[in-house]
Specification:
Blueprint (H helix, E strand, L loop, with lengths): L3 H25 L5 E9 L9 E5 L4 E5 L5 E6 L2 E8 L6 E7 L3 E7 L14 E2 L6 E5 H7 L41 H4 L1 E5 L2 E2 L10 H4 L26 E7 L13 E7 L4 E10 L2 E11 L5 E12 L8 E17 L3 E19 L11 E19 L5 E24 L13 E4 L6 E10 L1 E16 L2 E16 L3 E4 L22 E16 L2 E15 L12 E11 L3 E3 L2 E16 L3 H4 L4 E10 L8 E9 L9 E14 L2 E30 L20 E29 L8 E16 L3 E4 L3 E2 L2 E2 L3 E4 L6 E16 L4 E17 L8 E3 L5 E3 L2 H4 L19 E3 L2 E12 L4 E14 L2 E3 L2 E3 L8 E9 L1
Parallel strand pairs: 1-7, 10-13
Antiparallel strand pairs: 1-4, 2-3, 2-5, 5-6, 8-9, 9-12, 10-11, 12-13, 14-15, 14-50, 15-16, 16-17, 17-18, 18-19, 19-20, 20-22, 20-23, 21-32, 22-25, 23-24, 24-26, 26-27, 27-28, 28-30, 29-30, 30-33, 31-32, 33-34, 34-35, 35-36, 36-41, 37-40, 38-39, 40-43, 41-42, 42-45, 42-46, 43-44, 46-47, 47-50, ...
Length: 931
């Protein structure tokens, strides 16, 4: 929906583009100059952003930096020049050039891999327009991860933890606290891109009925529904580089709320690499190889890895297995007026998660479950860049097909406690039910086949006038998600949950999920003397297609305006070192559409027993139900919107780097399950007049007396009711390597404050009986959901030492959690309205309710629950060592987490809690071969 602030941005963009075109006309009039185009890449053929290019002659000097695509265009006077290209972390490139006509240059920068300062084993903070953390392959190798989850330790505020591979690992950015599944929108709204291809799915429906009923057990913890990507399934062995964008991203990226994880896989020639890892929880094996031709314009990379993990090494009945295979091809081609790069990859990821019951506990030896997910992905990325001067610069087209084959299998031995009956009807009305056996075996299966299609095109335009460079990005993206699975499959005569209120449904009958967006972005960089200003303004229009007309989102366009400004101050000399200072601010909105599970929830079947006549003779038994069907679909649901603001300061002094980011995020309409109400009427048959000894047939409901009963109940529906407010400070400082001891100090950390709450009123009933009947009223409460504020202050001091002669890296990480706090705000047990037996909503007056049954709607509160809980300082020492042999042909690494720990005792309600020895050290080692 286009709001006033987005209209202002549209006007600003239009004005900017108008003046840009005027500048183009002026630029065209300067026929004396010729245009030079430079494309700068590293040895992995990735664009090198902000590489400094200097063209110097006796009379003229031109200087500027490359854009995000590693491209720079300059207008120069013909002549002989010396070309210099510089970038921190790369060897300087120098060449003499003779400029007579418009020419394109390709510059390949080589990393300073032998420089002691360039051995970085931590995440580096990005210097771009949005705050991000960049994790290199060397940092990942030193960390020795088992899955992508382990990499989050390197982000500001992150801490190491033991792998928890028997449940879903969801991502949490700039957040603290454990609020529960009603606040999953933050993780659901984090996009994972592998070589530009998204792996998030809008059609994941793999859940069980006890998950719907919020039953907490081993199976439901393995179900990844409405919570984004399960990081257990992402292997790190094929990854070359990871960038985690936490700030305001370009408008090229959408359908998100929290951030973006950009994963770049290996590309180009590599030796045969093999990795073997073992620790107390898992064993991992990986192998990979990269090929390329002599011209280096054709590259093929392949990799395979296998993980076998257990939540407890002593438990052989519960495990998690992951198999990943990847094959990618890159083809580059040069033309007279440009060059192209085509990258295609096919990958497979299998996650096999299962458990069997212990025969010493479960005498039936039948209970077991498996959660198996198989993902096949085909992705293609084509990029064409023009090397001649023109307004048009480049085009990038991304196409991705993801096909999943997901299956949940559960076998359960059911022992009924009493004479239980099951309803069978799939339509509304009055029907007889079924008396099952007291014991039976239930086989349950959930079959899901989500198919995700994604297409994206980005066109880049630009020009330079004097000291002002202008870039314009325009494009669109489109996503289609459809689940072709059979859905819930079980024998209705032997249900897995005797109390379930659902019926089987086929996922293929659910409509497809489809979104599209168009975006426009202007990036202007101006050199004002020795100052440089960079301004990015963009707007993205999002819409959801294939929706029924009764949805509020039908036909609407939701605008996401975003802006980032960076000011780079003049560099200066201080303490015989070059110092740089820059300030960056940003503001933006990010929208996330609800997925299929939120748009098309399960129908709810309310089955009321009108008659339950259980005779000793099975021939005379009869159970009679009235079945009512309620659709919990919420046609008023809208996209969740996260409003972000951040400011960052970057300072460098030689190899000393300091980055401080202040942020604030507000999301007031995140997705959550909330109660709705319904009233119903049924018959209560009276069997007291039946002579049980002389009956010769089941009771006839048409001849039995009955009483009409009116009741109400609540059921869950998805609404925009969760509120998540984040604020905090992130920081990172890294020193140069101190001579003699070759040690670098890196200090990073974060202070996070996260508030969780419900922004909408809720319906609540009372679990009471009045004269043997359920309590007849429902209350509508404004403040009966627990709102909380959570805080944490974490720091991580790492000392890493590199000894070139031994090719040995040794690091010690002192991880501190200085405090963590949780405060629950008081709830109001006084309803604003109530619902009577006819379904009418009436105002609630506490004075007139006194002495009546309405007074029971006033829920007393325990003030002791609202005390602030605070945990004091915790400290862990982690040690990691990596040693290379035979010119890096063999690398042996080991780690010891919590080698030393200290947890400050604290007091709760007069009791002292001493946590000494609460956590044991965690060890592991691995060996890598480069052959």
């Amino acid at each position: 929906m286009v709001t006033n602030d987005s209209k202002v941005l549209f006007k600003i963009l239009f004005s900017s583009f108008f003046f840009f075109f005027i500048d183009v006309a002026t630029f065209k009039s300067q026929d004396r100059n010729v245009t030079l185009t430079f494309e700068v890449k590293n040895t992995a053929l990735q664009p090198v952003e902000k590489a400094e290019i200097h063209i110097v002659s006796g009379e003229n000097r031109y200087s500027s930096v490359t854009n995000t695509k590693g491209v720079l265009t300059l207008d120069v006077i013909p002549g002989s020049y010396t070309l210099q290209t510089q970038k921190d972390g790369y060897r300087e490139y120098n060449s003499d050039i003779n400029v007579t006509k418009t020419t394109a240059f390709f510059i390949l920068l080589t990393e300073k891999i032998n420089s002691i300062e360039e051995v970085v084993i931590t995440a580096k903070e990005g210097k771009g327009l949005t705050s991000s953390s960049i994790i290199s392959q060397r940092a990942m190798q030193h960390l020795q991860p088992s899955s992508f989850t382990d990499l989050l330790e390197l982000l500001p505020g992150g801490r190491s933890g033991d792998p928890v591979l028997n449940q879903v690992n969801k991502i949490s950015l700039r957040e603290t606290g454990r609020p529960g599944s009603d606040y999953n929108t933050s993780s659901m709204g984090t996009i994972f891109l592998i070589d530009g291809a998204p792996i998030n799915s809008g059609a994941n429906l793999q859940y069980t009925y006890d998950f719907q009923d919020k039953t907490n057990n081993g199976l439901t913890r393995r179900l990844n529904i409405n919570s984004g990507v399960d990081m257990r399934s992402i292997s790190t062995d094929q990854i070359e580089r990871v960038e985690v964008l936490r700030g305001i991203p370009s408008v090229q990226y959408g359908n998100l709320t929290s951030g973006i994880v950009k994963i770049t896989n290996k590309s180009g020639y590599t030796k045969w690499k093999a990795r073997f890892k073992a620790d107390g929880y898992a064993k991992l094996f990986a192998v990979s190889k990269g090929f390329e031709n002599k011209e280096k314009d054709l590259k093929i990379n392949a990799g395979l890895d296998y993980l076998n993990a257990k939540s407890d090494p002593r438990d052989k009945l519960e495990n998690y297995k992951r198999i990943t295979a990847n094959l990618s091809l890159v083809k580059e081609k040069k033309y007279d007026k440009g060059f192209s790069r085509w990258q295609s990859s096919i990958s497979y990821t299998g996650s096999l998660d299962g458990s069997k019951s212990d025969p010493d506990i479960d005498l039936s030896e039948l209970n077991s479950y498996e959660v198996n997910n198989h993902l096949f992905s085909l992705s293609s990325l084509f990029n064409y860049t023009k090397n001649e001067p023109s307004f048009y610069r480049s085009t990038e087209i991304q196409a991705t097909v993801n096909q999943r084959f997901d299956k949940i299998k559960q076998t359960k031995f059911i022992q009924l406690e009493n004479a239980t009956a099951f309803p069978l009807s799939t339509t509304e009305g009055e029907y007889d039910g079924y008396y099952p056996k007291a014991q039976y075996i239930s086989d349950y299966q959930v079959d899901g086949k989500p198919l995700d299609l994604f297409v994206k095109m980005v066109n880049n335009f630009g020009f330079t006038f004097k000291s002002v460079k202008n870039e314009l990005n325009a494009g669109f993206d489109w996503q289609l998600s459809k689940n072709w699975g059979e859905g819930q499959q079980f024998d209705r005569y032997r249900p897995i949950d005797p109390k379930s209120t659902y019926r089987p449904r086929a996922y293929r009958d659910i409509p497809a999920y489809s979104t599209s967006a168009v975006f426009l972005e202007s990036i202007t960089t101006a050199d004002l003397g020795r100052h440089q200003l960079s301004l990015a303004l963009g707007v993205r229009g999002n819409t959801m297609m294939n929706l029924p007309s009764y949805f509020r989102m039908h036909g609407k366009i939701y605008a996401d305006p975003r802006a980032n400004l960076q000011w780079e101050l003049p560099s200066f000399d201080w303490l015989n070192k070059k110092a740089k200072l820059s300030l960056t601010v940003g503001y933006g909105k990010q929208s996330l559409f609800p997925d299929l599970n939120l748009l098309y929830p399960e129908l709810i079947y309310k089955d009321i027993q009108q008659l339950n006549y259980f005779h000793s003779n099975p021939k005379y038994r009869r159970v009679h139900y009235k079945t009512m069907i309620y659709n919990p679909q919420n046609a008023e649901i809208e996209p969740a919107v996260n409003e972000k603001f951040e400011a960052r300061l970057d300072f460098s002094l030689g190899f000393h780097q300091l980055s401080i980011t202040v942020f604030k995020e507000n999301m007031n309409n995140a997705f959550r399950s909330m109660n709705n109400y319904a009233v119903y009427q049924y018959k209560k048959y009276d069997t007291s007049a039946i002579d049980h000894t002389s009956i010769t047939a089941p009771p006839d409901v048409h001849t039995l007396p009955y009483q009409i009963m009116d009741e109400n109940f609540t059921y869950g529906t998805q609404r925009n009711g969760s509120k998540v407010d984040k604020e905090g400070v992130e920081f990172q400082y890294s020193s140069n390597r101190i001579p003699v001891i070759n040690t670098r100090f890196t200090l990073n950390g974060a202070w996070f404050r996260t508030k969780y709450g419900n922004s909408l009123p809720v319906y609540r009933g009372r679990d009471l009986l009045i004269n043997g009947r359920p309590y007849p009223y429902l209350g509508l409460y404004e403040g009966m959901e627990p709102n909380s504020a959570n805080e944490v202050l974490n720091t991580n001091l790492m000392l890493d030492t590199y000894i070139p002669k031994l090719d040995l890296v040794f690091s010690s990480s002192f991880q501190f959690s200085w405090y963590s706090m949780r405060k629950l705000f008081p709830m109001s047990g006084l309803p604003s309205h109530y619902v009577d037996q006819n379904g009418t909503i009436l105002p609630f007056n506490p004075d007139t309710a006194k002495g009546t049954i309405l007074e029971s709607l006033i829920i007393a509160q325990n003030e002791n629950l609202y005390n602030t809980s605070r945990r004091p300082m915790e400290m862990n020492l982690n040690v990691k060592v990596s040693k290379s042999f035979r010119n890096k042909a063999v690398i042996v690494s080991m780690f010891a987490n919590r080698l030393f720990s200290y947890y400050t005792p604290y007091t709760v309600n007069g009791f002292t809690i001493n946590r000494k020895g609460a956590y044991d050290p965690y060890f592991g080692m691995e060996i890598n071969f480069n052959l």
